[in-house]
Amino acid sequence: MPDAIFADPRLAKIYDAFDGPRLDLDLYLGIAAEVEARSVLDVGCGTGRLAVLLASSGRTVVGVDPALASLEIARAKDSRVTWIHGDATTLPQMSVDLATMTGNVAQVFLGDDWEATLRGVHGALRPGGHFAFETRRPEERAWEDWARVKPRVLVGVREQFDLLDVSMPFVTFRHTYGFPDGSVITSDSTLRFRSRAEVSHSLVRCGFEVVDVRDAPDRPGREHVFLARKVS
User: Fold this and answer.
1) Distance (Å, whole) CA 160 – CA 75
2) Across-strand partners of 136?
3) How does the average pLDDT of the chain come out, rounded?
4) Which GO molecular function terms does the record list (predicted)?
């Protein structure tokens, strides 16, 4: 089930405000141009920020997400995108040039669902199609910075972040939102931190070859950006 931060309608409405400028998205627009992608599948599209940018560039775009509240926000932004409520394992038949997973999407899969997702992406790509996604480097210990995050107030809502548990490869944290009417909504999330080798091996097992592993311009030295190609 999606975390409340994506699935609760009140939180979905304020997600973009708290997410802030998406400086990471230029990287994916650049990759789409590099591989000459005319059609793109955005897995875990959330409120649709990348999908809308891709559609604005004239590409055919499909966005899929299991959080209906987030998807409704996305649908209101752009009717050119085909929005699908679901995940990579439940996609209709398609054959796209590029699939993407931005932000923390690749890390929300905690067990066998990771390779099931990879196989779903593989099935949605045309032969030779590409897959681009990012994942945080475990050795950079991002959670140590998260533990120092201060509360903030945006659009009249107070957000507090708490680090709950670090039991590698899993890191669990909580967002707490306080609304002007006095109501409070909490959302607990767990991410899995995989090594570069672990990610590479899983891609190969699921029918990809790793074309490149790049740095993330918005978080230099802290993430791996994988570019893989469907080979079988």
Assistant:
1) 28
2) 223
3) 97
4) methyltransferase activity
